[in-house]
Amino acid sequence: DLDSLRPEVRAYYASQGVPIVADDDQNANDLDKSLRAILAQRRVEEEPKDEASTITTRTTTTTSPMCLFPSCFIYGAFGGRFDQEMASLQALFVHTTEFVQGGLWLCNAHNVALLLQPGYRHVFPTGVPSSSSSLLRRMGPTVGLIPIGQAVTSVTTTGLQWNLHDDELQFGGLVSTSNRIAVSEYDHDDDHELSIECSHPLLWTMELTKLPDPSTGSINNDIPPRGLDAQNEAWD
Prior knowledge:
By secondary structure, this protein is α+β, with helices and mostly antiparallel strands. The protein has helices at 7-15, 30-46, 82-95, 135-138, 228-235; strands spanning 72-75, 104-107, 111-116, 122-125, 139-146, 152-158, 167-169, 176-180, 193-198, 202-208.
């Protein structure tokens, strides 16, 4: 609803040609409103322009389409008020299926998380060259599989130090926190595969490793991962 938007900030973004749209819905938070705006814009852009227009679809059988565009990266999703972090997780449950091709990612300088959907084999290749500065290059080694909202009756993984084999995850039972990408798999210069299959929506979290600044050699972990550039670089 733009109630906290400072005049000078509004003026700056208006001068850059950024659309400024007010949404007065008091039953939705700012993140929900932003995601609704993105989805509405995407639907407009995808509408056929004339009778000759065609829409190309991509089908998947056993491998998750998480690696395909479009993706959405939500920065600042962690830290600060705990209830707002929970609102970010709620957004995953509400909107992930609308970004199923590329994934809806929660990000800050230290973590990324996304909600894995059942019915797919989710694959995260670890063979990313050392010269790459992509998001995948920074992932791990610590990861987590968190059964938010309900029990996940079956989880099977490969490529982790403590793999799951058709195991059930639920609060009050087994929750796979502080798991790690297997040492033999965590060589970014070799082509290995980390995979996850789940019976119900499952929160997948990854720490982001500190990388040296290529210009100075110093480590700065306050810089967030690159967004769509990282996704495109990693999956090309």
